């Protein structure tokens, strides 16, 4: 047979052993075995990439992937011409299976090839008219091979195509397209391009010279590069908001090039008729749009069309297939975000409703100036006199109180804990909301935007300050809840995206493995064939291979590159090789690199001449050392081998640049000698060494050569950036596109309406008037700071356009950044430490060995002298000593250990105690001991009594209570303590009581367990250190000293050993910290490079001349430098100061806190503003003089995020190891919590529960039928939505009519819910309260009724009007019913529930950390001068305010504003200032303590605890997803039963086989198999009963197996279902199990065989009746008849 005689492979080839069909083969046994082996060999090229599907692959899954068109019909035989060469490439009997392997498959596409395709099409059409329609399996798409699709690279199985087949038409390689008019062209990079063989545009055939030339031009690499350069030129023109005159002709030329490209594509592919024509590709529509919009924007100069100028940039996506693939992968990953997006929207909507009704209108309360007449109690409608307009007075902005340097008036409130107004002002509701009116809760839309801002944690500290000032500090609970939920949502989003990314990466890796396997099969065959054919010449080939180069090249390499000249030189070279390969050589170079880094880090401002001279000499010395290293290695290895090592290339480049810089700065030595003649301790005007530039600073990275962790960090960064290059290009493309779009869309608006956002009508720092500032703004928005720039944009350009652009930018940017972060995180966590720095380890081991040897020799000499004086007889011990050892062996049980362990320990050790009693009652009471003779027996009894006392639960509870009480006493020690004498007296006596109790406890523990037992337990050490502070403070106070109060902040740490959850969490963290400590040091070293570069760029340039009167900086036109500023000071202008920014880059130590602010995106704006304004050293800054210095901060933010991902990956690795050691249990869980965790996991496999029985009463039965119908549930959900909408439409200034309508809508909803309760109670009876949702509905109904009918009474006598709104909001509690049927949302909720125990433990640990740091902050920063963010809301004066401050710092918000006043030094603060109400003096704090305080808290709270929470949620989401992937819940079984009842009305528990397809399509997900599903159902091999009936249990088992992926689970489900059916239908027991007569797969095989027989018989009958010339029988019919005999 010819290879085109069958449209499909034979059925017998592709079935595995379990699915082998029971029909005879069409060939003999030997040929069939050969054919099966061939198919097995070629399987790797065509099988799917998912490994999970390989063992289940069948013919129909292989040949019909999901939706395909397949006909199991043989076609007419066609005779290929002798020139075709098919017979030479394949055997006639194995040909129809798959295309042949290797390069022999390539054939030029000629007219003969086109004629063959037409013959196959004609034969196919002729046979198609006579086929039976029932035998066709019709599907939607063709079964094209996935690896041979257009745009993909040629699979390795075909080898390297010969040059004559590249960029020229060849026959199609895909068997599916062999019967279609298509041909292939292999372009650059072995890329496949498929074209139609039909005439293009009905004129140009496939062999037309014009079309072939167009194809060659289109696919040529130079043409692609030319188009890419054209697009880049067009993008360069986009960056000009007002392009020059010469740009218009250039733009027309670019458009002409685009038109030429489109014309070539149309000529090469055709316009629209055909599958592979120009317009059939959606990406080509982009070309048409680009040309049309380019002509419009070039010919029509309109501001409305400015947005279209950005469209040509989209051609970059069209020109880069990698970008298109990345976009496709992102779109696929976004599908998995649907559930979490729905959950996020519901949560945000709920919080927005709560915020709407809690804070509606409160942000409009301002401090208004009181006139001469008091009108505190007057309303807004009252007038004092006819001449006084009250409304005009309160609306006049001049009468509002504005804080210094604030555009918005001061907010206030009337609650007891709300903000107060200054003297002479009264709090009234007037004017607009803050921030141009956009920070508002007055309507649902603005409340949703504000809550979204709160969830993204953008400038949320200011929002909380405004809200707490207007409503009271008690509402901080709302912000705490929102932040906790937002972190949890972020963790869920990260978990979902991480899983989607991991799945796609796994699929990609599987595809690579498949292609590699296919390539290896081909290469092995090719190698075997070449070995058989050319075996005699193999040795000759190997011998000739090294000498393939000309002799002249070899001699040049030996002389000029390898330097093997003479024997003397070789001996010298050998000695140099031994020297450079010695371990001590690497050790010396590493020490020099470390010393060089230290010397570079020692540069600072200002430096003395002596110090400057020392650094200069050190730099020259290190340059000489590293130059000598390069020269010696070059001489020892030769250039040929030297430059093959990457580190050697790196060293040579750095040394070359250093030497060039020294040569260029040769005048520095003479200049330095002139300058050094001055005074020795004057600062030099130039801080940084001119020759110590960026190249020398790059030498820091040479530490990676000898530091494995640092090397892994750099290598992971490099490989990740290379692997994710398309992702990074896509992110850069998005940034560029939105930058150009924002500039063209909003640039004119910023220039025209700048006075709305600026008092002096000058452009602010963040605007969109030019491309660079727009780029910075877009980068800032992607980094998470978007709301402030959104306010300015909406003020100058309108709300609609700005909201649309910002929402698009936020969504696209966040998705890209998060995917990039996750990709880097997964790659960094999968990387492993490499074995490196062998020479360094060898050298260190040699040094250690030498030290040990020397020590052993010295000690051995001393021992030999001492041995002469040692007696050989051992000392004798008395009985008293033995008894004494027995007494000391007594230990007490640790109170933190479980009681079972304590009992075992007491039983084991009680046997060793003379006279001890082993029995112990359950209450821990001691039994009476017989008093023995002697003092040691008394001591023993005393210790036993102490141990028994310590074991008593009552004593342990009392000590725990005392610990909590002593910690709670610290809360009252605020700045107001000395004014509350009674409280202070109580605390003094309580301090003495606590001291006595804890010292007594300590003595008891020492007496019971001894010192050895006590001081070997780390928890006991913690108790000892904390308890030791009590007598220390009492002694200091008695002696008149004032010890630092911060010591008291250690007291809450004793709680750690009293609560098992916190102890487990802390133990896990302590196990994680050592493993990631090395990574942390590597990241700090990575930051050191940026710190040194920052010192080099900005040291001494942040100084400015300040006018202390108004706090503004002098303009450069008035003061130009430090000299002029000091001249003003000398002229008695006391308000003038030459000052510096508090955080700067004057030295490396102060650069680290500055970089921390940049990395956390808090306070980085002030640093970047100062860098953008620098001019020269000791010169007055100028506004945006060095605007491009901002790129330093952009680069560091990007690199800082990568180091953060590396650090998080280092935290995840040990957690995974601990998780695997515990057998899948949580590492942060106690034993009790582990049981809950296992119960939650077991809950994912819930089996169907018994349904509520239908009542026998007719009325109740009717009500039962009503309340259990889906339509009733839908109606309830509709009413819930209506009620929620009624709550949403409420506004602050709504009319009375609107309020009246909303009241009656709410009243109707409550009546409906009451009727629902009555109906369900009547229909379900007592079963109503068996459902948790029904109980929840009942509680909500009761509260809604109370809130509606008793509103006035409750508001008048019980709660305030503001808190009453909370009761109204209880009605939205029915909203969760909307999501109880969503599978994806339930999976997210399951992951959340599984994470709760571990999150609770971490939350307790975080709370303890906040408590400890709050107490420390109260004792250290309580009297700090107010300024920046420290005010009456955020301060450390009281415990509550301290906790609010630390809450903001936990989210990395506002810590720069809190640190700013702490960094004040005189004269900005006054050390001797008096603080009213206390004896403490001064309002200054220690800057060093402040930096350490905030840095340590950020490291502990955010990097460890917050990231731990995200890791926990990700881990539990993976487990929940894995479990729910196999889940068939109760609802799915109920839906299955309801659908079965429609197809089986007689309840026979079986349906006819013909109904199976409709039944599976009617099922809901996940059991549904949508149409077309006949092939899928056939492959499931369902048993058939008599009469072609299919049993219900068999169908359920097969469908469940598709979901559960576990046959055991499916069998268990089937057995349980059959058991219920037997219980429900007893007749099945009598009848027995029905007999299985066949199966769906067997029936399909029989149908196919019957069709073959019928067609063969018909053809035989027709041909027997025809003329003798037409009686030739087809080979297919002959083979079919042989198979059927």
Provide structural commentary.
- With 1685 residues, this protein is mostly helical.
- Helix content is 59%, strand content 3%.
- It has 61 helices and 14 strands.
- The strands form 6 sheets. It has a 3-stranded antiparallel sheet, with no helix packed on it. A 3-stranded antiparallel sheet has the order 9-8-10.
- A hairpin with a 5-residue loop joins β4 (182-186) and β5 (192-196).
- The protein is globular, with a radius of gyration of 42 Å.
- The N terminus is likely disordered.
Separation of termini? 20 Å
Unreliable residue stretches: 1-99, 130-142, 373-385, 533-549, 671-691, 833-837, 869-932, 1244-1249, 1605-1610, 1620-1633, 1669-1673
Provide the gyration radius in Å: 42 Å
**What is the number of helical segments per DSSP (H or I, 4+ residues)?**
61
How would a textbook summarize the main sheet?
Answer: 3 strands, antiparallel
Mean pLDDT: 76
Helical residues, percent: 55-70%
């Amino acid at each position: 047979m010819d290879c085109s005689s069958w449209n499909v492979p034979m059925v017998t080839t592709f079935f595995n052993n379990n699915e082998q069909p029971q029909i005879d083969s069409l060939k003999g046994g030997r040929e069939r075995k050969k054919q099966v082996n061939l198919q097995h060999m070629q399987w790797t090229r065509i099988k799917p990439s998912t490994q999970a599907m390989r063992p289940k692959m069948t013919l129909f899954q292989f040949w019909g992937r999901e939706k395909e068109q397949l006909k199991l019909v043989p076609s007419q035989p066609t005779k290929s011409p002798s020139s075709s060469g098919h017979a030479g490439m394949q055997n006639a009997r194995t040909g129809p299976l798959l295309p042949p392997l290797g390069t022999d498959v390539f054939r030029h596409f000629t007219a003969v090839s086109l004629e063959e395709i037409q013959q196959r099409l004609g034969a196919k059409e002729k046979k198609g008219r006579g086929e039976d329609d029932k035998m066709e399996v019709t599907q939607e798409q063709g079964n094209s091979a996935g690896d041979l699709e257009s745009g993909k690279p040629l699979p390795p199985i075909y080898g390297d195509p010969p040059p004559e087949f590249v960029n020229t038409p060849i026959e199609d390689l895909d068997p599916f397209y062999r019967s279609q008019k298509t041909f292939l062209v292999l372009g650059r990079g072995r890329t496949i391009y498929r074209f139609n063989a039909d005439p293009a545009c009905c004129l140009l055939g496939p062999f037309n010279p014009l079309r072939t030339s167009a194809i060659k031009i289109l696919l040529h690499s130079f043409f692609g590069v030319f188009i890419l350069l054209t697009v880049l030129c067009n993008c360069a023109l986009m960056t000009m908001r007002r392009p020059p005159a010469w740009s218009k002709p250039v733009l027309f030329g670019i458009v002409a090039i685009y038109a030429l490209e489109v014309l070539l594509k149309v000529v090469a592919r055709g316009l629209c008729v055909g599958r592979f024509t120009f317009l059939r590709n959606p990406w080509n529509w982009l070309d048409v749009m680009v040309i049309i919009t380019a002509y419009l924007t070039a010919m029509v100069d309109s501001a409305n069309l400015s947005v279209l100028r950005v469209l040509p940039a989209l051609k970059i996506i069209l020109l880069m297939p990698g970008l298109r693939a990345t976009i496709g992968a992102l779109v696929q990953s976004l599908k998995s975000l649907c559930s979490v997006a729905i959950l996020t929207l519901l949560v945000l909507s709920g919080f927005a409703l709560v915020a709407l009704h809690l804070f509606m209108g409160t942000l409009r309360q301002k401090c208004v100036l009181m006139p001469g007449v008091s009108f505190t109690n007057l309303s807004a409608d009252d007038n004092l006199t006819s001449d006084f307009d009250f409304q005009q007075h309160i609306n006049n902005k001049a009468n509002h109180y504005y804080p210094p340097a604030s555009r918005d008036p001061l907010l206030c409130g009337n609650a007891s804990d709300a903000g107060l107004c200054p003297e002479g002002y009264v709090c009234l509701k007037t004017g607009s909301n803050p921030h141009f009116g956009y920070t508002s809760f007055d309507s649902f839309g603005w409340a949703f935007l504000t809550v979204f801002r709160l969830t993204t944690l953008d400038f949320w500290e200011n929002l909380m300050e405004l809200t707490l000032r207007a409503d009271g500090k008690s509402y901080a609970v709302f912000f705490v809840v929102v932040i906790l939920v937002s972190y949890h949502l972020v963790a869920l989003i990260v978990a979902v995206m991480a899983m989607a990314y991991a799945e796609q990466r796994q699929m990609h890796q599987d595809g690579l493995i498949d292609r590699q396997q296919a390539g290896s099969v081909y290469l092995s065959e090719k190698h075997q064939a070449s070995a058989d054919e050319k075996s005699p010449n193999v040795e000759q080939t190997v011998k000739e291979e090294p000498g393939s180069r000309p002799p002249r090249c070899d001699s040049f390499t030996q002389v000029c590159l390898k330097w093997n000249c003479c024997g003397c030189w070789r001996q010298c070279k050998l000695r140099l090789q031994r020297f450079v390969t010695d371990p001590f050589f690497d050790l010396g170079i590493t020490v020099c690199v470390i010393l060089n880094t230290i010397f570079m880090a020692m540069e600072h401002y200002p430096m003395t001449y002596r110090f400057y001279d020392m650094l200069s000499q050190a730099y020259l010395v290190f340059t000489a050392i590293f130059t000598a290293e390069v020269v010696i290695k070059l001489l020892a290895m030769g250039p040929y081998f030297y430059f093959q090592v990457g580190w050697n290339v790196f060293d040579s480049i750095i040394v070359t640049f250093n030497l060039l810089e020294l040569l260029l700065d040769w005048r520095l030595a003479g200049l330095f000698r002139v300058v050094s003649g001055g005074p020795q301790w004057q600062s030099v005007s130039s801080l940084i060494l001119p020759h110590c530039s960026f190249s020398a600073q790059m030498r820091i990275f040479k530490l990676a050569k000898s530091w494995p962790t640092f090397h892994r960090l750099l290598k992971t960064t490099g490989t990740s950036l290379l692997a994710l290059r398309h992702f990074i290009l896509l992110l850069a493309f998005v940034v560029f596109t939105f930058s150009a779009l924002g500039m063209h869309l909003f640039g004119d608006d910023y220039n025209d309406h700048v006075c709305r956002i600026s008092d002096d009508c000058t452009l602010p720092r963040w605007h969109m008037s030019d491309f660079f500032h727009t780029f910075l703004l877009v980068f800032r928005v992607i980094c998470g700071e978007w709301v402030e720039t959104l306010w300015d944009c909406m003020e100058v350009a309108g709300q609609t356009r700005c909201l649309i652009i910002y929402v698009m930018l936020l969504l696209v940017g966040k998705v890209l950044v998060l995917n990039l972060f996750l990709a880097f995180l997964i790659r960094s966590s999968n990387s492993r430490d490499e074995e490196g720095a062998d020479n360094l380890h060898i050298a260190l081991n040699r040094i250690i060995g030498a030290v040990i040897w020397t020590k052993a020799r010295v000690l051995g000499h001393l021992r030999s002298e001492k041995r002469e004086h040692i007696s050989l007889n051992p000392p004798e011990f008395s009985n008293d000593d033995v008894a004494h050892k027995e007494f000391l062996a007594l230990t007490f049980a640790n109170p933190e250990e479980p009681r079972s362990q304590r009992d075992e320990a007491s039983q084991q050790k009680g046997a060793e105690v003379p006279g001890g009693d082993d029995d112990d009652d359950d209450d821990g009471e001691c039994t009476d001991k017989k008093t023995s003779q002697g003092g040691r027996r008394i001591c023993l009894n005393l210790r036993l009594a102490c141990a028994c006392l310590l074991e008593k639960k009552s004593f342990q509870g009392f000590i725990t209570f005392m610990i909590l009480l002593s910690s709670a006493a610290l809360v009252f020690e605020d700045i107001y303590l000395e004014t509350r004498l009674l409280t202070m007296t109580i605390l003094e006596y309580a301090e003495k009581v606590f001291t006595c109790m804890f010292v007594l406890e300590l003595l008891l523990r020492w007496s019971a367990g001894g010192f050895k037992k006590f001081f070997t337990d780390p928890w006991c050490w913690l108790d000892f250190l904390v308890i030791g502070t009590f007598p220390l403070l009492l002694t200091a106070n008695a002696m008149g000293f004032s010890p630092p109060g911060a010591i008291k902040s250690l007291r809450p740490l004793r709680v750690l050993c009293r609560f098992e959850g916190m102890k487990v969490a802390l133990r896990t963290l302590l196990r994680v910290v050592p493993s990631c400590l090395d990574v942390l040091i590597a990241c700090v070293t990575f930051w050191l490079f940026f710190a040194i570069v920052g010192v080099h760029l900005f040291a001494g340039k942040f100084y400015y001349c300040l006018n202390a009167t108004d706090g503004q900086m002098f303009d450069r036109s008035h003061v130009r430098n430090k000299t002029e500023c000091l001249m003003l000071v000398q002229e008695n202008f006391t308000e003038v100061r030459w000052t510096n920014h508090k955080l700067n880059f004057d030295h490396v130590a102060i650069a680290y806190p500055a970089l921390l602010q940049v990395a956390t995106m808090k306070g980085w704006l002030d640093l970047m503003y100062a860098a953008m304004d620098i001019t020269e050293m000791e010169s007055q800054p100028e506004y945006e003089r060095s605007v491009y210095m901002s790129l330093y901060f952009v680069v560091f933010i990007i690199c800082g995020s990568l180091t953060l991902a590396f650090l998080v990956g280092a935290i995840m690795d040990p957690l995974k190891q601990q998780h695997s050691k515990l057998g899948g249990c949580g590492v942060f869980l106690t034993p009790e919590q582990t049981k809950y965790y296992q119960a939650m996991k077991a809950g994912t496999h819930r089996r169907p529960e018994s349904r509520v029985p239908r009542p026998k009463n007719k009325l109740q039965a009717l009500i039962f039928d009503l309340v259990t119908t889906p339509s009733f549930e839908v109606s309830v959900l509709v009413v819930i939505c209506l009620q929620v909408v009624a709550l949403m439409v409420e506004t602050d200034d709504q009319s009375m009519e609107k309020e009246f309508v909303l009241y009656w809508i709410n009243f109707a909803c409550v009546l409906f819910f009451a009727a629902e309760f009555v109906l369900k109670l009547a229909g379900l009876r007592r079963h109503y309260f068996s459902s948790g949702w029904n109980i929840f509905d009942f509680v909500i109904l009761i509260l809604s009724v109370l809130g509606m009918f008793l509103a006035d009474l409750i508001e008048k006598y019980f709660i305030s009007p503001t808190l009453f709104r909370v009761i109204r909001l209880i009605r939205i509690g029915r909203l969760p019913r909307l999501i109880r049927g969503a599978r994806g949302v339930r999976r997210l909720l399951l992951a959340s529930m599984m994470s709760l125990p571990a999150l609770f433990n971490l939350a307790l640990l975080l709370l303890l950390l906040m408590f400890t740091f709050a107490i420390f902050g109260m004792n250290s920063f309580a009297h700090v001068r107010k300024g920046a963010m420290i005010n009456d809301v955020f301060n450390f004066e009281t415990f509550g305010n301290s906790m609010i401050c630390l809450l903001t710092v936990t989210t990395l918000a506002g810590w720069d504003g809190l640190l700013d006043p702490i960094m004040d030094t005189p004269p900005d603060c006054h050390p001797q200032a008096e603080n009213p109400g206390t004896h403490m003096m001064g309002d200054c704090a220690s800057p060093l303590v402040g930096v350490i305080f905030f840095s340590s808290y950020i490291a502990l709270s955010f990097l460890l605890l917050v990231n731990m929470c995200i890791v926990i949620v990700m881990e539990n989401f993976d487990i929940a997803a894995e479990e729910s992937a196999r889940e068939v819940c109760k609802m799915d079984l109920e839906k299955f039963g309801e659908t079965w009842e429609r197809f089986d009305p007689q309840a026979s528990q079986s349906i006819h086989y013909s109904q199976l397809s409709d039944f599976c399509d009617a099922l809901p997900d996940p059991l549904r198999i949508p149409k077309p599903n006949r092939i899928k159902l056939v492959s499931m091999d369902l048993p058939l009963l008599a009469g072609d009936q299919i049993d219900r249990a068999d169908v359920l088992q097969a469908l469940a197996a598709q979901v559960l992926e576990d046959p055991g689970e499916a069998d268990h489900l089937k057995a349980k279902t059959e058991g219920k059916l037997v219980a429900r239908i007893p007749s099945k027991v009598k009848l027995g199990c029905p007999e299985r007569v066949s199966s769906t797969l067997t029936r399909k095989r029989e149908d196919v065989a019957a069709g073959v027989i019928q067609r063969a018989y018909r053809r035989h009958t027709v041909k027997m009746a025809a003329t003798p010339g037409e009686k030739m029988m087809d080979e297919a019919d002959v083979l079919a008849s042989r198979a059927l005999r």
